[in-house]
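Crash report, auto-generated. Payload:
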Amino acid sequence: MAIQLHQTQRLDQAFAALADPTRRAILSRLAVGEATVTELMAPFALTQPTISKHLKVLEDAGFIERGRDAQRRPRRLVAPALHDVSDWLEPFRRQWEARLNNLDHHVTNLNKEGD
Amino acid sequence: MAIQLHQTQRLDQAFAALADPTRRAILSRLAVGEATVTELMAPFALTQPTISKHLKVLEDAGFIERGRDAQRRPRRLVAPALHDVSDWLEPFRRQWEARLNNLDHHVTNLNKEGD
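Recovered output after restart:
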């Protein structure tokens, strides 16, 4: 029960963190490779306090962490956190694909009947 | 550009709607089949105004719609909206799987060396 509650709060935090275009763009950038705060500032035309705030939200959600280089303090992606979010969506994705397959099957049958 | 902005706002709204455990539970319930507001109230032990507020958020995010029965006004899932969210996560999921495969490959090689 405690684990389930923890997981629920983690998902709340994860989805809330993803509900912002800058934070999603930062994650997409970090998917290519780690980057320092300075490196992240340029493409997003954001001030350091703003980007730091976004990075804190992503860090708290477990999406990113600080790399090993103590001088540069690069941020990098923690893949498993996004995997949890993806896992939650999996049954919906499967249902949607099953529906598309049924539709496809239906159209094929209609075409056969038309022959 | 207008389409891109629209899509960005849709994703913001979609992720924000998913950042709540009751709303995620409502979506999971509706994945099984359509349900009226009364039917949704019972399992969640929520008042009608509270559940209506959650349903409005899910409707605005494009996740649910009202069914054809004008009397019962059942709510039902709109699958494509969740598919958009799943699509956004797809590159991260693929990267994560590639990493797991690499790890698997690495472990297999280590085992071979150990033979």
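Post-recovery validation: The two ends of chain A are 58 Å apart (CA to CA).
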